[in-house]
Amino acid sequence: MNLVERQRQFEAAVSAYPGISGEARIARNFGFSNSARVIQGGLFTSTSNLETYSEKLVAGKTEPYKQFIFLCVLTFAPQDEVYFAIVINDDADKINRGLIKLFHEGVRRKEELAAAKKKEGNISNNVKFYLTSDGTLFFHNNDFLESITPEDRDLKIDPDCSARVDSVLFALWPPSASARRGLLARDFVGYLGSLVGHERVHEISVWTDENSLSPSMRRMPATIPVEDIESGVTALGGHYPNGEVRRFHAALNFLDHKHFVILSGLSGTGKTQLALKYARTIHGVTSDTAVDPLIFECPVRPEWTDPTSLTGYYDVLSNRYIVPPFLEAVLVATAHRDSPVFVILDEMNLARIEYYLSDVLSAIETRGSLQLHSNSVPLEGSTGTSVRAEIPIPPNLYIIGTINVDETTNPVSDKVLDRASVIDMSTVDAPGFIASLTGRHPELQAVSAIAGPKLIEVHQLMQQHGRGFGYRLIEEFVRYHAFDAKHLGNAPDSVTDDLLVQKVLVKLRGAERQRGLLNNLDKACDRLPKAKAYIQRLISDLDEFGSFQAMR
């Protein structure tokens, strides 16, 4: 979309906004030399020609306009633009004397031109408009002012040349949710609020694209009925029959300033998927493949020993601040305060959590700021945004971690457990999941009826001894059967036999206390020769060494 089209669409959106009169006088101030700029004590908004404000004809007479709208823009490199409209209404008690002044000045200048028989342009009709810290807009015909502090204003400005601002409407370009344009543009919007009052500043919807934030992305989770969240997660293919969604929702939202939950359990039980499907449901996204700019996935790596993997670092070679996904999530949440931003730390105990997450945990608990660098000015970030020396953790940032408890992970310290809500997801409902799977995918109904009973039997035996497996394995077991039936044509029992060895029994390990599990599995696999031989080998290892491990 080109610049002229953006300007046209912004003007149309402002004109359609409630409270804007069809007879309002609109001043377009989009030129490059006319761009708004922040100055000491306020804001230079534009330069406009006074004649455009002079009068309108009403029943053969001239009257001043009752409503003025100044359309302005401020550009932030490299591509960010804040379009804003300053709305001024003429009150019955004539508080806005500036509008009357504009009217009379415009009429007087026109008369001077006519009397002197001069062409337009021989007399300067351009006036400069300034927005002050007391919420008024004033104008003058002198040189540009670098400062409009009260002292300077009293000396240089006619007090009649001012009008009270009723509201400011704004829109941001580009419309996508991005840390790239977040901080500077949003800071400017906040500055407008400090000048005229935050209650008078309103964002309007003008442009949309695939990454723009829909209205459903501008609502907090606590405002959404949990029944709607559960149905949304189910519609996305989630199967959580033990109240996991409700417990997760409560743990994530019961505090206003801290949203930190750890999901624990067996591999493949849907921990990461619960976080993703919950976030998508909150944002009103109905597909697992649709773009959601407010979700950030951060796979944790074993070598993380300090906060830089989350909060970034200054790279002397590129002369930029490296912005990892976690910091980008913080920046996006800072830029979009009315939208929940979700960051998922996947497999977070592959490294020592208290090593790399300590700064974040401290900032959350103290409601302080993340200390990123020591420069007095913001640094250029690797994503194109400016990175300040310190950034507070915004209250609309939701941090979700997933952990597995096995020999590949680190124990979670009390320091971390004390600061998070931990939800265990080790209980797996195999029959219910298979029923849900075939309900969503009817083409799997036939193979599920064949492969399901034996898989459920084996799962129940293993789960009783703490060796169960998750939903991921169950779905892949069924889909493998479907692929074989369609392309290979092997006997179903033979496929089940192969799969038990390839995907299920390889998880077995233990000592004497697990002998009962091996004996029960041996009986369950009587008609499956490969699986039975595999279990017999494990029993032999147990007899000889006092322990067994399938993968050795």
TrEMBL record:
It comes from the Bacteria. Residues 257-429 form the AAA+ ATPase domain. InterPro entries: AAA+_ATPase, P-loop_NTPase. This is AAA+ ATPase domain-containing protein. It comes from Lysobacter firmicutimachus.
